[in-house]
């Protein structure tokens, strides 16, 4: 015969729903005593900083500013705006205009555009080759996290080379 499991004692419904504030209140009281009482005086002026979204938007705006005026480039996001490879080319051409002839590029030649952009960024900006040309060509719309990460790395490389000025804190 199968063994019977011992039954749990039935709990009163009030025990299940009763708030369990006593331990938390006691620990809060202990903390206040430990640190010398409640805070007095005006609250410090804490400025809330933007999170990842703000940084992402700032980087997107930086890309827009640097590629403004380049034909076939309209950066609205970190995915479809980069699908032809020309946004990468324009961004890199802005800093290294003698590296290649941007006007000779064709949006239909995605593979060549990505290859040119990544090779130029690696050669002239010492940008780590984080993206593979074949991966970019395989996707009709590039993965936004991949593009964002690559653009961050390119930005960091350009800052390290002294080509992008940042505000010192």
UniProtKB/TrEMBL annotation:
Stretches the record annotates as Disordered: 1-27
InterPro entries: CH_dom, CH_dom_sf, F-actin_Monoox_Mical
Phosphoprotein recorded as keyword: yes
First and last residue of the signal peptide: none
Pfam family, one: CH
Composition-biased stretches (Basic and acidic residues): 1-18
Residues annotated as domain Calponin-homology (CH): 53-159
Keyword Coiled coil: yes
Top-level taxon in the UniProt lineage: Eukaryota
Protein family: Belongs to the smoothelin family.
Name recorded for this polypeptide: Calponin-homology (CH) domain-containing protein
